[in-house]
Fold this sequence. Notes:
Organism: Mesorhizobium shangrilense
Pfam families: MarR_2 (PF12802), SBP_bac_1 (PF01547)
InterPro entries: Bact_solute-bd_prot1, HTH_MarR-typ, SBP, WH-like_DNA-bd_sf, WH_DNA-bd_sf
Largest sheet: 9 strands, mixed
Radius of gyration: 25 Å
Number of helices: 25
Subcellular location: Periplasm
Main location: periplasm
Amino acid sequence: xxxxxxxxxxxFVDRLRTPFLGVADVEDEASWRMIHYIMRSELEGYPVTMSxxxxxxxxxHGTAIRRIQDMISKGLVERRPAPDKPRSFTxxxxxxxxxxxxxxxxxxxxLIAEILGGRGTEEHETNYYFGAPRxxxxxxxxxxxxxxxxxxxxxLQFLLNDDNYFxxxxxxxxxxxxxxxxxxxxxLVHQNDLYREGLANGQRAVSAYDIIAIDMPWLGEFAGKGLxxxxxxxxxxxxxxxxxxxxxxxxxxxxxxxxxxxxxxxTIEVLACRSDLFEGAGLTLPRTFDEVISxxxxxxxxxxxxxxxxxxxxxxxxxxxFMFFLGCCGQTVLSIRRTPTGFSTENLDRQxxxxxxxxxxxxxxxxxxxxxxxxxxxxxxxxxxxxxxxVFLKGQSAMGYVxxxxxxxxxxxxxxxxxxxxxxxxxxxxPGGTNTSPIGGFLLCIPSNIDxxxxxxxxxxxxxxxxxxxxxxxxxNGFPVAPRxxxxxDPEATGRSQLxxxxxxxxxxxxxxxxxxxxxxxxxDMERIIGEEIHDALxxxxxxxxxxxxxxxxxxxxxxxxxxx
Length: 565
């Protein structure tokens, strides 16, 4: 159970308890209020003082203090020194209280599902998610968009990434049966150009676009510079149901607790494995760094044009790989806040934006990367994402790190040599880490300098583009997007795609993560620096320790300028 789901269950129970007080006086109401408050504050990163906790209890001050002291003596609450206030302390739930609270939430979730008839008593609560809406709710078609185009000649303008998904979206809109727009309304550009044009558009008096796509890690910069509009209220009024999105995916829309966009598609980086080769060799699919290397060496045979792994180690993808592998070792690239169930990019302040690159975990990652190069295809240090996918697609490698959006071609492409021969596993873990799968993809946002007269149409377009029907149509066409529960749970959608089922399973098991690439305002500079320094280490231009130290120092300077130190 992740943080978001935990809070949803607890908030539901809290809302049930309030009216029940009118029926009977619950003796332990004060304890409930304090536990609910301290758990929520811990998960959301707010400090809890003795006086705050006493106040929320509803008891007299003296009685509340004694109750808190009793919770401390029983090992449910602990005191920690406050970081910025000498001789002060904050209160936190202990591991024991956290375990008890999570177990109670899980039991409550299962009981609700049983009472409502949605699940049987024999089904484990991790197999479903609390809060996913019922399937089959119709989405109103964009009638106003169609009317405006026909009667007034108004066409919305889109700035999107140049990939297969957005090309399919453009085709859907410009299809004669929909008649919502023409192909010229869509500007599809390379990812680097998308970033530059998005920044340039923000400098115009009036935006040239009504909706723009941004890479998820860019959000902190675009929101911090005021280039995209806060749209939380518009989202709710439009009928977009945030509860239908996996919380880790929906959280990518938020910077400093404000919603700025809608996830239009998600892609997960996983390890693709040739199931036929592994079965033929009697090997199990790898779950750790060392198992990846061991399997890769067993299959690596360059004279036969067969490689252990297809890997993209050019500078830009290498930066992402480093951050992902670091996450697989249980560490983050920045000092972001740890929560009882992982890390959080919410409510970041200066102390949570310091780099953590010059570390022992980073040395372990670099050692793993050196070993990957030994079993990778020739020219891996110059390979980008599409290059490594092409190697795997041709059947030339036993494994490959790949985004699920690109992996769709393994079964969809006519020229694929690996069709129906691929299995997927979450990112293998390193020492001290777990099997996690990082989230990527794009958000649809409305520029803050949009013509106000076009805003209602842009909002309606956003809702339709992110609708269950539109996403389901893309899944049926071979795109493993499925950021919505109602799509990933749809038998018609899951029956068509192994990847949709796989990603849905990762979500149910709480293995989707968005913190490996924190969306801080200096993300693109951080990505560039990491890519350059790690590439220098792998190419032998620098020692590993020197590259990590240089990356740390360069990032410190960038961050100091970004946060005004």
